[in-house]
Amino acid sequence: MPATLGPVSPDPREAPRRSVALIGMGVGDPESLTYEASRALAGVDVLFTVDKGPTKADLNALRAEICARHAKPGLRVVEVGEPERDRSPADYGAEVRRWHAARADVWAQALRTELDEAGQGAFLVWGDPALYDSTLRIFDDLRARGLVDVDVRVIPGISSVQVLAARHRVPLNAVGGAVHITTGRQLAAEAAGQDSLVVMLDGAAAWLDLAAEEWEIYWGAYLGGADEITIGGPLAEVGERIAAVKQAARTRKGWIMDVYLLRRRG
Fold first, then answer.
1. What is the distance between the alpha carbons of residues 37 and 262, in angstroms, rounded to a whole number?
2. Which of 45, 74, 136, 165 gives the lowest tally of CB atoms within 10 Å of its CB?
3. How many other CB atoms are there within 10 angstroms of residue 93's CB atom?
4. What does the DSSP 8-state code read for residue 206?
5. Which of 22, 27, 48, 25 is nearest to 38 (CA)?
6. For the segment 25-58, what is each residue's pLDDT rounded down to a tens digit?
7. Which domains does the chain have, with CATH numbers?
8. Are 147 and 110 in contact (CB under 8 A)?
């Protein structure tokens, strides 16, 4: 009978390494932080934050409130700069790759200078680090290029998709059906043949390009925050209204984070 191998003990001769936790902090409500995320945040030495500019000061305030509730007193916070990004490039994929590489350079420099070689650092990630977020790819890049030697662990968080379904009290899938997750940029090309689509990163109102009579929509913005907005119903009846509400909210706050579920009728 083959032997059963237990956990491998670390080699005491190995030097301690920097460690960074990518902590999913949900949609901004301090109450939505998981117990695992709370424990992870309480154990780090340095929190790295990305400067999103003055228009998103309320997001910074939410992050500060989360730290006040869950981090250890006196946690050192290091702000890293955000490289410029072209929001309307001719080649979207190439621009995102360039931007990610620039972010990896900036983050690696911050890790080398601000986190001791045996230190425990963290980045707080909106929603869940594995769902439409670039943080994991950037860490893959900086490690692959040898910019900094760091161990990475991921703490999952409650995503806006989960909160959206909860607010509207609907399952994401039809009975026995699949759920297709896409972006506003890809919606028109990918809607055919799908019964349930979750749409993220829609900078406009891509649902207006669909045959409205075929769909129901469940939309939410600023989910988990004080300014939360939710609207749902037949797309033909509420689609234009949602577009107007979204534009008004973006004008009022200077930014918007929204997500929606499209369900084919019948």
1. 31
2. 74
3. 8
4. G
5. 25
6. 998 788 889 999 999 999 999 999 987 777 778 8
7. 18-155 (3.40.1010.10), 160-264 (3.30.950.10)
8. no
